[in-house]
Here is the input.
Amino acid sequence: MSLDILPSRGDGFRLHPVASRLAPMFCFALLTASCALASFAFACATPFAAFAVVAAAMLPLRQALLVVTGAWLVNQTIGFGALHYPIDGSTIAWGFVIGAATLLATAVASAVLRLLPQDRTLLMLAITLAAAYGTYELALLAATPFLGGEGAFTAAIVTRIALTCAVWLVGLVAACEIVRLLDPFGRKGAMSA
Here is the structure.
């Protein structure tokens, strides 16, 4: 099932809820607000892989990397400022590892979206999420010999976070579709002009 939000324009972008000129700011606002909600709700289980897919699906790679960096900074600010994460070397290092894993997941999501067929379906976003989430988790797992935390990689925990990412991806795509349908920024008028 193809959606209008996923047009086949051959421009490498998959989500078009707003005019292209507004996409970076819209994506930044969407993901930082979502990250703030997720950070308070889930603390250490923020769905960064879902954020990576949405950013990669909406923006060119460089802009997507900047947007997810902003979301990560929001997460870290909330974690250390409001949730009182311990300020020690290990926690700070894990914060940077999470940021690096998010950037890597975004780059992989962007590459996967470029490789997938141009029929923009939700299945393509699901495939991209699987690749981004796998990359994200492997990057985190690679840090455990140096930082500890192997216990966070049980099948139950990894599956729960994967499902959380899938639900967030559906919600973010739905939010994009609602914005596209409501057209609060004059997208339709700008496209026809």
